[in-house]
Amino acid sequence: MQDSLSQTFSALADPTRRAMLARLSQGDANVSDLAKPFLNEMSLPAITKHIQVLERAGLVTKTRDAQYRPCKLNKDALRDVADWMEQYRAFWEASFDRLEAYLKTVAPKKKPRGKKNVRKK
Amino acid sequence: MQDSLSQTFSALADPTRRAMLARLSQGDANVSDLAKPFLNEMSLPAITKHIQVLERAGLVTKTRDAQYRPCKLNKDALRDVADWMEQYRAFWEASFDRLEAYLKTVAPKKKPRGKKNVRKK
DNA sequence: TCGTTAATTAACATATTAGTTAATTAACTA
DNA sequence: TAGTTAATTAACTAATATGTTAATTAACGA
Hints:
The structure is a homodimer. By secondary structure, chain A is mainly alpha-helical. Helix content of chain A is 58%, strand content 5%. In chain A, strands 1-2 form a two-stranded antiparallel sheet. In chain A, a hairpin with an 8-residue loop joins β1 and β2 (71-73). In chain A, α1 packs antiparallel against α4 (44-56). Chain A is elongated, with a radius of gyration of 22 Å. Residues 109-121 of chain A have low confidence and may be disordered. The A-B interface holds A 2-10, 12-15, 18, 21-22, 25, 58, 73, 75-76, 78-82, 84-85, 87-89, 91-92, 94-96, 120-121 and B 2-3, 5-10, 12-15, 18, 21-22, 25, 65, 70, 73, 75-76, 78-79, 81-82, 84-85, 87-89, 91-92, 94-96, 115-121. Chain A binds a DNA duplex through α3 and α4.
């Protein structure tokens, strides 16, 4: 058995499942609602399995309403991912700043004073 | 062949690989540097494979320096994940605010992060 | 040149994932 | 009650992921 963050990332590593989450972010939906966009690509049991993966990952909670199974997005697991990402925010934002800084040196018709490769060791 | 966001999430769905990224966020490292914390759990070829997964996902770039293979973190793939997350930000932040509001009405002192199943970091 | 270190490749075992079709459960409705 | 709809379970297949050990490649340094 995996740790839960791994399970969450694993569940996110599939476009069908991410599309389901996107759908659920618009509002709760039954299994058949979630299935509809994919029934030309795969069977209903396949859909059931995808939803089960999302459930086990804690991303989705499925309840019962007569013969329907309303599903809702579960914020906690998404927040765990966001929290993990947070430790890298400075990192990827820095590179964006660097790109922006670079573009500023280039866009004005000034001579780009580029010194890129610093030899290590 | 998978879409690239799926490949990235898939690469993140492993604690060994996430630990490698954490290490690389502190600075570039050779394969053997990355391997060191794990050599009691798995073999060097296993490490090589993990790094290859990170490379294919675009999360890591490996270069050459004599017999060494310095690796560096690649911000772009991380940013892709962050961008995807962004569409859900309002969603999980809303629920956090709700929790915070709730906790303020109940226990104005502490603010525990409640979790259904134990999520290991 | 020889031995050592760094890292990869090859070949293989095993587990997990993602899908299938067929059967089943459960609740509604005419 | 019989038929229909919603969804799951069972049994199976094929592909991919993750690890192993043994062999190999490549560069350094005494």
